[in-house]
Hints:
The complex is a heterodimer of chains A (627) and B (364).
Chain A: H1 3-9, H2 12-21, H3 25-53, H4 64-98, H5 107-126, H6 142-147, H7 152-180, H8 193-225, H9 239-272, H10 279-292, H11 308-336, H12 345-368, H13 370-376, H14 380-410, H15 416-442, H16 459-489, E1 521-522, H17 528-534, E2 542-543, E3 550-552, H18 558-576, H19 584-604, E4 610-612, H20 614-619
Antiparallel strand pairs in A: 1-2, 3-4
Helix pairs in contact in A: 3-4, 3-5, 3-16, 4-5, 4-7, 4-9, 4-14, 5-7, 5-18, 7-8, 7-18, 8-9, 8-10, 9-12, 9-14, 10-11, 11-12, 12-14, 12-15, 14-15, 15-16, 18-19
Chain B: H1 2-23, H2 37-70, H3 73-76, H4 89-117, E1 136-142, E2 145-150, E3 155-158, E4 160-164, E5 168-175, E6 180-184, E7 188-193, E8 199-204, E9 217-221, E10 234-239, H5 241-253, H6 261-273, E11 301-302, E12 306-307, H7 310-318, H8 320-323, H9 345-356
Parallel strand pairs in B: 1-5, 4-10
Antiparallel strand pairs in B: 1-2, 2-3, 5-8, 6-7, 6-9, 9-10, 11-12
Amino acid sequence: MSSTAQAQxxxxxxxxxxxxxxxxHKKIAILYLVSGGFFFVVGGIxxxxxxxxxxxxxxxxxxxxxxxxxxxxxxxxxxxxxAMPLLFAFMNAVVPLQxxxxxxxxxxxxxxxxxxxxxxxxxxxxxxxxxxxxDAGWTSYASLAIASGGHGVDFYALGxxxxxxxxxxxxxNFLVTIIxxxxxxxxxxxxxxxxxxxxxxxxxxxxxxxxLTVGLFFLILDRMFFANFFAVEMGGNTIIWEHxxxxxxxxxxxxxxxxxxxxxxxxxxxFSRKRLFGYSALVFATILIGFYGFMVWAHHxxxxxxxxxxxxxxxxxTMAIAVPTGxxxxxxxxxxxxxxxxxxxPMLYALGFIPSFVAGGVTGVMQAxxxxxxxxxxxxxxxxxxxxxxxxxxxxxxxxxxxxxxxKMFGTMLSEKLGKITFALFFFGFHATFxxxxxxxxxxxxxxxxxFVGDQGWDLYNLISSVGAAFMALGVITLVINIIMTSVxxxxxxxxxxxxxxxxxxxxxxxxxxxxxxxxxxVRGLDTYWIEKMExxxxxxxxxxxxxxxxxxxxxxxxxxxxxxxxxxxxxALYFIDGDKAWPLPVLALGLLITLGSMAARSLKDDLGYHIxxxxxxxxxxxxxxx
Amino acid sequence: MMRGLKKWRLFGLAxxxxxxxxxxxxxxxxTLQPAGQVAEDQFDLLLLSTGVMxxxxxxxxxxxVLAIIKFRRKKVGEDVIPEQVEGSKRLEFIWTAIPIxxxxxxxxxxxxxxxxLADVDDMGVVDAEGTPASVxxxxxxxxxxxxxxxxxxxxxxxxxxxxxxxxxVYFNLTAADVKHSFWVPSIGGKTDANTDGVNTFYLxxxxxxxxLEDGVFYGKCAELCGxxxxxxxxxxxxxxxxxxxxxxxxxxxxxxxxxxxxxxxxQELFEQSCIACHATSGAGTTGGxxxxxxxxxxxxxxxxxxxxSEENLKKWISEPQEYKPGNLMPDPGSLPGREGEAFSExxxxxxxxxxxxxxxxxxx
Lengths: 627, 364
């Protein structure tokens, strides 16, 4: 009884209600996937508008003000509303399965985290229809953000505050889940690599998001009540925003890229049919990268004028990150070395990732050379660099992971043929778009320009970059076609569709039953499913317990209402700033009341969940592994 | 036949050379054609780090390509299960130690040059007679233009920085409204213009700008500052010592007085409507609300980026928001004495004659 089969039997309204109230990590994963995918397309359209505008000099496709909104929303959307939720989709879909758990530690919070993200993202994007989007860049540097007219920056600050709370909740939830919910025998050093990277990324979220929260509150208070945190003439300071933003912003890069590393680690092992080379070194490198991630934020501020000593220290600290990153690259290379490589679509993404990410990594080291960064900073070189890291690292992982985990999430395989076409188009387009941008930067083109005067040596390179972007768009369109065709065909697959699965998620049906494991597995080593397979165990796992009652949480609409309350309150706060309307204050109060009321309802009313009885489990027949 | 082939070879060589030169960009704005000591130091670091990084890329590529070719399933066999290797302490040591060595190798020049470029100890040093030994420029970045004041010399200009060659020029950099960033790619990397305080740095200009295509180096704002961030360009004229002194002297004497009938008409108009914000004499120590126009006739661009023609000047005066969205220059109609009325074509002619006549280079 798979959850999709269940859903198919239900009407649309019942399905919708099911998803609005679900606390099942697998369904929340689908919610993250769908909404993250939607925002990825929105951010992608914004990217295309940017490249159309910059295809030729002195273009007037969009105006200066609109360009700044598009550019700001592209960055903000891609980081906060596409990359992070898509990674959460895979974390939710896979991590509980990988550690042999029946759900995350706090299923209710899991749902709350999603709905906060969702309402925050919707709120932010409604700015397009309500007077204009934020236009101070995704970094929203204080002096410009305070000076920005209209409500764009308010949408940014309030929207990110709401969705950021969701992210923080999700991060804490994964930390607790991975610490507490591992199956017997799943020691830390037997955890699959994706679980490890999720663990470290969640720890980074825990420490990195509070500085952002503080910064955003300062910004909101400055704009709502003239609190003067950033008003220089009133004794405020704008540089403090840069610090707060980057103390969050640099770890954020690792929050994104570490889970990407985890997905690639899984792919390399599966499609090389070989265990990860240097597993313990990879774990240690992950921890080290997470740790260093907090020590280097000022390399985003080399030109701010912090002084030679600060710049020198942060330069050397930044270079040090290259060491654990290099360790990872070489361990992956040695994983495929001596393996039996299958060039399936996920593996193509993983193999494409290595040269792309190495290129992004080495330009990162170049920018760590502080005096050289004075030239590269805020030029198109940095634009090329971070797209090599984020697209070459994170997006390739998301696409690879999508193909890898699609069968586990939906029980059917994406077309390999279309998958390879998607990869070819996207990979070619990516390099065509961004490689040339390194040179644009070296030739003196600043970033975040809505247009450029011709004959400065940039015309051809910009055109090439725009043509490349069109190929990326074609790749994404092919992917969408693939998803539609696959869903229509709906050919069901078994537990281990890639045939070389190594970790627990491949030992159970695709998609897994809503309780995941009928019997909690006993983990006997790293790559426990592989061990069982090699020993010829047809069950695919050793059980740690006999079949018994399973305790399950109840669905709840409260997370949805709680988040919707903040969404309403944000509108009140936003228009309160105008000071000329009577309704914002009541709306603000009403929204907060909804949120607090639902919190009270949740706290005062015990929700003890329910049990799936042993008899019902036995009636279903077959073993968890038998499909 | 052979001759034809040779010609083709020559053509190929020429094409390769052209491609290479094109890849280095335009010399007035490219970091790859440094024209000052700072940019040269940075270019050297670029070459050094690129060299090291290309080495890294080659090593990775070799292992990567070999692994893919040698261990593809077609070659290894469909059902072969490879040996499950756990790892290798020796290899882990090697690929930890070598990158550490590489990083240390890069760290030494990085730290050295970081301190070197931050060295502004000689700024404002005076000789026995109290004359400053070097030129100091106070740069103020404003929405969307640049002011350059030379407090020691008692002159102020805007939009076009004029500096002497072959000596360090010191800068005090700040922003008047929102954050900007000062960047002359072929002379040296950028420094942010903060609203919070003053950043100091130095640059040296080793080439005279007269030999360049437009006779100027290009400068850019490198920090997003609003809609017209992309248009917040400035230009740099690097003159040899004697020319620079002559320019300073001419600036100190500039009066902003018109010559000729039409220009005098223009001056009257200007003094009625524009003078409240724009100064026309380069002498002084304090900045204005709007760019100082003492050198307007010598300039290279209108509004920082449009070709320097009377036609563009008239367009710019008539519709400032159209050409630089978000800038603070009022529409003609809202200027003092205009009472909602735009400048007529005759008035624009007079203003243009006056403004184009504002030059100090002719007096050098």
